[in-house]
Amino acid sequence: PEEPVVSKTSALPILAVSLLLTWPVSEGATATDFGRHSSAQHDFQLTAVVEGLDHPWGMAFLPNGDMLITERGGDLRIVRDSLLDPDPIGGVPDVAASGQGGLLDVALHPNYAENGWLYLSYAARGRGGASTEVARARFDGDSLTDVEVIFEAQPKSGGGRHFGSRLTFDQAGYLYVTSGDRGDRPRAQELDDHAGKVLRLNDDGSIPADNPFVGQANARPEVFSYGNRNPQGMVTHPDTGEIWAHEHGPRGGDEVNIIRAGANYGWPLVTYGSAYSGGRIGSGTSAPGIEGPLTVWVPSIAPSGMAFYKGDVFPNWDGDLFVGALRDRLLVRLETDGNTIVAEERLLEDFGERIRDVRLGPDGLLYLLTDDPDGMLLRLEPVEKAS
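Request: output the structure for the sequence above.
Response:
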C-alpha cells in the first residue's frame, strides 16, 4: 500500500551543477557514517549530516550553503555548517498537522538571490475542512517575513489523506504545485476541483494566461493536468525543461509521468493498481485520451521525492532519475534514454529507512531525508569502486 497515515507523535528546484563545491562537516558536528554501499555504476559512502529531525519532508539549499528543511509537524529548520540549529525558524504559517498533512515542501524562487522569495506548501484548515495551500515569504536569517498565501486549493474537505504536495519552478519561472485527490477518487477528474491535479501559477500566485483551462466554464484556471492521484515527487528536467512527476497508486500502480498541459493521467478511470480490498478500480490500464506512464511499480514502493542527477561527482549517474521509497524503504535509480526509462536499480535496500525526499546539492552530491520521528539528513559521497 501507499504510505500510512501517521500522526506527528506520517521528480524540486531546477537542478544544475557547474563545478564541484565541498560541504565538509564542520568542527563540532557529529556526522554518522553508515558505511560503503555499492551500485552498478558507483560505490558510495552514506553519511548522516544531521539527525534529530521530526518527520522531515522537504529541503532547499540557500545560496550561502545553509539548508532549509521542513518538518511535517509545522517547523521549518535550518542547517548551518552541517549543524542543525536547535531553534525553528519563526513566522511559518499555521498548518494542519494531522494524518499525512502538515508542513510539506519548500522551494526557492529561481531568482532567490535577487528577490529573496521562498515558497512553502502545507495542509491548512479552513471553512469546510483542510486542503493544500502555498505561501511565499522572505527569510531574514531567523524568521520568515512578508508571508503571503498565494494559493489555496478548493474545495476544502475532511480527512487527513492525499495532500500532495511538491513544488518546482520550470525554466520560464512558472511555479508547479501538486495536489492529491484527498482520498476521494472522483475529484481527480473534476476540473472545477483542485484536488488530484498538477497546478501552474505565476510566482505571485496569479494565473498564467496560457494555462490549458483558462476561460473554460466549470474549470479551475490553475489546473495544468488532472487525473493525478497523490503526487509526492516532482522535478524539472535539467536539460529539456519538462516537468516530471511521480504519484502513489493504490495497491500497486505507482507511476512516473511527464506532465503536459491539459493532459489527463487517468486516475481513477484507469490504473495499474487495485483497491486495498483487492477489487478492481476503473476500466483497465489504458484508455483513449489518457496519458500513459513512463514506468509503473506493481507492487507499490510508495514513492516520495525525486531528483535528476546532473554533474561530474558521479559521472556514470549523469541523467539518471533518483526516487525515494517509503513503503519499500530504499532509493531507486532509474536510467533514462531521452524520455524513456530503460533500467531500474534499487539502492540502500539493507538500510531500512523510509526515504521521504531526494535532492541534488550544489556540491554535486545527493541528499536524502528519512521519514521518522528521529529523521536524518543523509548524503551520498563518492568512493572508489572496488577492483
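The longest helix spans residues 112-115.
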